[in-house]
Amino acid sequence: MNHTICYVSKARQGLSEEEIEAIFAKTQRHNTNENITGILLYGFGNFFQVLEGEKKQITTLFDTICEDHRHDRIETLIHHPIKKPIFGTYNSKFNVVKTQKELSEIKNYLDVFNNKTSFSSKINRLIHPFLLAI
Fold it and tell me: Mean pLDDT, the chain, as a whole number?
């Protein structure tokens, strides 16, 4: 069954640009190899990530992320089943968002859940700094 998890987290203080690039590279490689779709953004000292895939697989991955010392104050925004991956248009690979077009996919993702979550306005406030960073 397809599932999605979306979260934001504060990056550990002092995380270098090289460490951030290493996170991006490892995330993209691992998630692509595991057929996990989604996106990862970094801006203003925060991460925003969407994971899509088999529930057990992405839940296990998310548990690992929660234990990662490079993340602090992880807040789960969305944890729901989905009919089909929204980010599957990326040729089944995981992407680091770097363009306005890719950001529009995030808006589409959030729009799907706007009526399903009681805190959609909070999600929009949390993602706003990422939109400014690109």
Answer: 80
Looking at residue 113, its pLDDT comes to 63
pLDDT digits (tens, 9 = 90+) for 23-63: 888 888 898 899 898 888 888 888 889 899 999 999 999 99
How far lies 50's CA from each of 16, 34, 94, 96, 110, in Å? 22, 15, 10, 11, 10
The helix (run of H) or strand (run of E) holding residue 8 is: strand 2-11
Contact 36, 52 (CB under 8 A): yes
The answer to whether the CB of 121 falls within 8 A of the CB of 110 is no
0.85 surpassed by pTM: no
Measured CA distances, 93 to 37, 46, 118 (Å): 6, 22, 30
Residue 47 makes CB contacts below 8 A (sequence gap 6+) with 8, 9, 10, 11, 40, 41, 71
Instruction: Please tell me the distance from the alpha carbon of residue 132 to that of residue 134, in angstroms, as a whole number.
Output: 6
User: What domains lie within the chain, and their CATH numbers?
Assistant: 2-133 (3.30.70.100)
